[in-house]
């Protein structure tokens, strides 16, 4: 009896070892999709500022500085855009942004200008360089909650610091209309983000 029990334990140990070794050989794409961070809302329906967004998947930083827009750009900053990682994993597999997808756009001013065109000169050369944070905009996909704006809700957490802890959804005429008219895919500016443009 004791020898049979030892044999069973030994075979289990070998099985566990082989399974562990095989799992380590599998490519990351075959692993289970990570848990998603889904949007959080207050009791009144305001969106809560997403947590840990700097650890999300970075997709790009379009820039529309004042100096190139008559001194009054609508968004005179770098738009540092992140997508929630679990949603990004689903998008990579399906080519569709799932409900619950969150895009976080952190606004970042350019360093003060040194030249007439708004640029400055740094060791790497002349150009526009990231400066202070300047608030954030967040976009959330929910085909039911935001049906009247094509399935996406748009929020502003201040265009200055500190970022607001919560925000109310913007009217269609404030944000959605521009995304609906000009964004390349599902109201997302994938034309500016090679990571998403497929």
Helix percent reads 10-25%
- Cα-to-Cα separation, first versus last residue: 61 Å
Number of strands: 9
Which regions are unreliable across 5 or more consecutive residues at pLDDT < 50? 12-32
Main-sheet strand order equals 2-3-4-7-8
Shape: globular
Radius of gyration: 23 Å
- What is the beta-strand fraction? 15-25%
Which architecture name of the largest domain does CATH use? 3-Layer(bba) Sandwich
CATH class of the largest domain: Alpha Beta
The CATH homologous superfamily name of the largest domain equals: Cytochrome P460
The domain tally reads 2
CATH fold label of the largest domain: Chalcone isomerase
Layout of strands and helices, then pairs:
Elements: H1 2-25, E1 47-48, E2 57-60, E3 77-83, H2 85-94, E4 102-110, E5 120-122, E6 125-127, E7 130-141, E8 152-156, E9 166-167, H3 176-182
Antiparallel strand pairs: 1-9, 2-3, 3-4, 4-7, 5-6, 7-8
Folded structure, characterized:
- This protein is α+β, with helices and mostly antiparallel strands.
- It has 2 domains: 1-31; 35-192, Cytochrome P460 (Chalcone isomerase), CATH 3.50.70.20.
- The protein has helices at residues 2-25, 85-94, 176-182; strands at 47-48, 57-60, 77-83, 102-110, 120-122, 125-127, 130-141, 152-156, 166-167.
- It has a 5-stranded antiparallel beta sheet with strand order 2-3-4-7-8.
- β5 (120-122) and β6 (125-127) form a beta hairpin.
- The radius of gyration is 23 Å and the shape is globular.
- The model is unreliable at 12-32 (pLDDT under 50).
